[in-house]
Design a protein that fits this description.
CATH topology of one domain: OB fold (Dihydrolipoamide Acetyltransferase, E2P)
Order of helices and strands: EEEEEHEEEEEHHEHEH
Strand order of the largest sheet: 7-10-11-5-4-3-12
Shape: globular
CATH class of one domain: Mainly Beta
Strand content: 25-35%
Length: 147
């Protein structure tokens, strides 16, 4: 698992580095989305998570949820268009799950993506994500997850 400046980025995920979102293929055509450890470190302790409702159609590049911390409120954007199939109710009830366990318990939504193959080709595989994330951290002036 790449560890970039104290931030874990699992090998088995696909990353939208620009938006700090990870994707996990679920084997049935659906994908699970969440925020990276970098996103939660940048935002700080999350206090609210408001997802789009189940059945909602999402356009590529648009928000699947609004995330709020003590110092930031903003959209969690999906590179993939599709329909929201499931929302992580545990994250709605306890937003700090994303800080504590961003890749398992802290997932955000499950999406039935449209044109997944073309979206997938635009994402970065975890085993190859280090250069992309190093450049993004440099551009954003982010010292790391332990900083």
């Amino acid at each position: 698992m790449p560890n970039i400046r104290g931030c874990n980025l699992p090998d088995d995920l696909l990353y939208d580095v620009e938006n700090h979102i990870w994707f996990r293929e679920m084997g049935d055509g659906k994908v699970k989305l969440g925020m990276t450890m970098v996103a939660t470190a940048l935002a700080g302790q999350l206090v609210a998570f408001t997802a789009k409702r189940v059945g909602k159609k999402i356009k590529a590049g648009k928000s699947v949820a609004t995330v709020e911390s003590g110092k930031w409120v903003g959209p969690a954007k999906s590179a993939a268009a599709g329909e929201v199939i499931e929302v992580n109710q545990a994250l709605v009830d306890s937003p700090s799950l994303a800080n504590d366990d961003p890749y398992e318990a802290g997932w955000m939504i499950i999406l039935q993506p449209e044109d997944w193959d073309s979206v997938k080709s635009s994402l970065v595989l975890g085993s190859a994500v280090t250069p992309s994330y190093e450049a993004k951290m440099d551009a954003d002036g982010f010292e790391g997850c332990g900083a």
